[in-house]
Amino acid sequence: MKSFFQLIARHRVLASSLFLMVFPFIMPYEALAINILIFGLFAMGFNLLFGYMGLLSFGHAAFLGIGSYLTGIGIVHYGMSWGTAILVGVIGAAIGGLIMGFLAIRTRGIYFSMVTLALGQIVFYGFYKAESLTGGENGLRGVRVDSFNIFG
Fold it and tell me: What number of CA atoms fall less than 13 Å from residue 43's CA on the CB side?
């Protein structure tokens, strides 16, 4: 008979997925758990590109910003539900990543880093100057937080 740890080792993707789905609800501070998961995904994406591929990218913050702002704008200005707004944010970040990747992948070494830095700054200033949508330097206000209970 297999031990519990051997079973977990065989199904580590399933076990990790289940843990990540339950983690925000067992933490005493739900917002902290969600931020830990978001920045953990951010770090894993950066590790994939820099750690395994050797490409130093400064564009990751732009992808996070595109997805976050499009989600927030969808909720505040267009009255979207959370699920729809998150889907719009993910699709927008993916399109932004495709565009930035198309422009940056043609370069190597320090030039790749500089192109991703420049494109990341373009995204930053674009959202910074769109004060009517993003609030500019004051940030996006009025994002409603609906209560969510997975257990009913």
Answer: 6
Instruction: Classify residue 32 by burial, with Cβ atoms within 10 Å: 0-12, 13-18, 19+.
Output: exposed
Q: How many domains does the chain have?
A: 2
Same domain (yes/no): 112, 67: yes
Q: 10 Å Cβ neighbour count for 74?
A: 21
**If 0-12 CB within 10 Å is exposed, 13-18 middle and 19+ buried, where does residue 112 land?**
buried
The whole-angstrom separation of Cα 59 and Cα 45 is: 11
Domain that holds residue 71: 55-146
Q: What span, in angstroms and rounded, lies between the C-alpha atoms of 81 and 48?
A: 32
CB atoms within 10 A of CB 120: 19
Output the pTM of the full model.
0.75
pLDDT, the chain, mean: 85
pLDDT in tens, 114-129: 999 999 999 999 999 9
Dump pLDDT digits (tens) for 62-107.
999 999 999 999 999 998 988 899 999 999 999 999 999 999 888 9
**Do residue 32 and residue 61 come from a single domain?**
no
CA distance 87 to 90: 5
**Statement: residue 44 has pLDDT above 70:** yes
